[in-house]
């Protein structure tokens, strides 16, 4: 299995995707679980930041060090564990006492390595579902069974289930001290504590801000620090409510990619549940997506794999609607325009076929996306 | 080094670190040393009135600020509320840390009184005071023997089995006022009163088995500070001693040297005396001649001033007697106990529940006070109310173990349960002795045997104090910890 990782990482280095390469090297060294290797990966990350980002030092030094580390990890072995069920949610429902909102019965399962995306419009029950899953809100019917939690009681559940809310509570003191504290309360002490904190700082690109305070960093970095903090507590299930809200586009992609890698970690696999408005980004990394509308689960990509009844294409173009109808032919085609882009629905032509027709007819296309199987289609 | 130790605790012992025992303890002890040093070097003549009340007010304000500052730091990190790794001993451990820190902060207020006493004891020894007081009294007697009365007060006492205590024979005829204003008379007494009177009289003449004449010497203690001979090897002269030494057989004296010695002694203890009195000790030459000898001499030598100065010295020297030490320990202990319990509760409950608990406490206190005042059933009813409340809070807290959601009311019950636990054995002991006392007075009428009957009372209260604390520790380590863990982690409705 290590060979696959080595090939992957080597490919990143070859194409100068250094940031991704470093992150994957850190992940692999973490999975190999040897402190010396983890420390070398941390040192390499620091060289990377000095060399490539800060333009200090020589690139060759960095590449040589990277090669050396890759050679070392090539001789290691790691065994990928099989997926284990983490939480089973059966017909969970919740009504608020003032009765103005009800979450209808929902069922799903999350195993180690899974990423569950929860999508839906505002005020439809995403946060309610996540809080019920995290044990913060009492459920009215159904059950939430955390299979990995051996001790009875909600304290043990909350020890192993981490919840990051939309509004992250303020931190006090130095950010790095907060990370040390989180690791320590998860029984990570002494040198291991230092190692894990440094690892997490490098892994999430926070090294430069370690000695800052909460007021000195942006909201995007606060989200990253909060993720680092909860990860140091080694949760088996990580629940995030709108984690991408405060992040720029690049940071969103990075965080989602990192969450996918961390969920599928070999040393410490975990399940991830996140809610977001960024449908496409979530769908790219999620193993299962729940679409919630007015408190009900309308669609679950994993449990309900149904054949598409129609093909849907999102399109942004300067061409007018009439021209589009002429090019595509108006049989079985409906074109809606929301002021920004067109949503073209066809019962006979697939999205690829529609695209081919448009390209052949020299229609200038600014943006397109096939949303035949995306939950986006339920938003209309 | 402090920073290194801080980081060591952070990474190795987060529960200890988050209590800030190391920083609060270090700075707390440092401040204690600072206060002690300031108390030592601040101008404080033992002869002046005490300044401890100003010190106590100032340091209490600083203590309050320090307490708030510590609480602000505590708010920052909480292993329990982060659902961190929480061992069975951690609740007791954190309580111990809070107790130590609170005790250090509270102890600051005790430092200036202690230092003041140390300074007074260093400045004047008990024997020195006793010797000087005796000398002053002797010298005044020698100098003013012409005006000092030597007429003893005389009372005749007759034992009468039908009398309780003391009763005048013929109130309308037996008053005979002597020059000192003492009333001599004829009295019927019971045996106990006779024994007391005979023991304390300066002289006794036994006329028969049931009749005694007792004589009380006039007061010659112009300078009087009774506490000095309890603490030294020398004894203060009584009026009778002074009478025998000086007034019974008057001798000629060197008045000029005597006045100089007296002036020196007075100025030693009352430095605000006019320096010109150094040669004579006399403050005023004109005073009301119609007064008794005590008043005349008081005005002549301004003895009140000297007595006050001596009183200031002895009040500081002997401040820490057994009673005061016990009282101070109790004050420090109970303040520390209550404050540290409040901190512990705050760290284990939600903010809303904590402040609702405080509000509930205030409301309950007011309502209970009104009820007790209006029904006026006596002292024991308060103890009964406390026990009743405790039972109610036990019942409310028990709901936590069956509950599926977190409710405020059981949380409040649990908070009160924790706060009241160390006091329950004391309340029970108080109720027990209250009922015992009532039973005693119903069946007995002998005051003299009362002390024997209740000789173990103080010991039992001490046991109740210790027992209450141990009970608290035991329950914190077991039941209360479980209850808080369960309650705090429950989901909200």
Please indicate the percent range of residues of chain B in DSSP E strands (runs of 2 or more): 5-15%
**Oligomer type:** heterodimer
Order of the strands making up the biggest sheet of chain A: 5-6-7-3-8-9
N-to-C series of helices and strands of chain A: HHHHEEEHEHEHHHEHEHEEEHEEHE
Number of helices of chain B: 20
Count of the domains of chain B:
4
| Shape assignment of chain A | globular
Distance between the termini of chain B: 48 Å
How many strands appear in the DSSP assignment of chain B?
6
Q: What is the averaged pLDDT score of chain B?
A: 87
What is the succession of H and E elements of chain B?
HHHHHHHEEEEHEEHHHHHHHHHHHH
The percentage helix of chain A is 40-55%
Q: Low-confidence spans of chain B: pLDDT under 50, at least 5 residues?
A: none
Instruction: Report on the biggest sheet of chain A.
Output: 6 strands, mixed
Q: Using DSSP, what is the number of strands of chain A?
A: 13
Summarize the topology.
The complex is a heterodimer of chains A (380) and B (493).
Chain A: H1 2-14, H2 18-32, H3 35-53, H4 59-74, E1 85-95, E2 102-111, E3 115-119, H5 126-133, E4 141-146, H6 154-160, E5 161-164, H7 175-185, H8 190-203, H9 219-232, E6 237-241, H10 249-263, E7 271-275, H11 279-285, E8 288-293, E9 296-300, E10 311-317, H12 321-328, E11 333-337, E12 342-346, H13 351-360, E13 365-370
Parallel strand pairs in A: 3-7, 3-8, 5-6, 6-7
Antiparallel strand pairs in A: 1-2, 1-4, 8-9, 10-12, 10-13, 11-12
Chain B: H1 2-12, H2 14-19, H3 21-41, H4 52-74, H5 90-107, H6 111-123, H7 126-143, E1 153-159, E2 166-168, E3 176-177, E4 183-189, H8 191-200, E5 203-206, E6 211-216, H9 228-231, H10 239-247, H11 255-269, H12 293-301, H13 303-317, H14 322-348, H15 351-375, H16 380-398, H17 408-420, H18 424-443, H19 450-453, H20 457-489
Helix pairs in contact in B: 3-5, 3-6, 5-14, 6-13, 7-10, 7-11, 15-17, 16-17, 16-18, 17-20, 18-20
